[in-house]
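The protein record quoted in full:

***
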Amino acid sequence: MELINSGVGLFSVRYKLRSMQDNSVWGLIGIYGPKEESLGADLRDEQITFMSLRDISWRLGGDFNVARFPKERSSLGRSTSTMNEFSDFIESSNLINALLESTRLTRLSHEEAPILSRT
């Protein structure tokens, strides 16, 4: 891989890369989203800005710190506006949530404050 350029935001880092094998160019964004729901729009805006280089394919990875569906939360319940906004972002950006399909969450109780982990 050849690094063409990179950028750093409040919630993520962006890399534009070129394959040395086939000369293809693509982007990688590493994300760690805010825990404060009020900053969710800032996170989404940052990703939209980073992905504005529409001439390449993007891969996003990391933790958005938001559930998309009630079944991904420990408290279940109904969809929230944050969930709906996150889903709208995924759909409007033409992103594919490949890693979470058919994935269950497991509560890890060995932590001081139990957390959920993908199994």
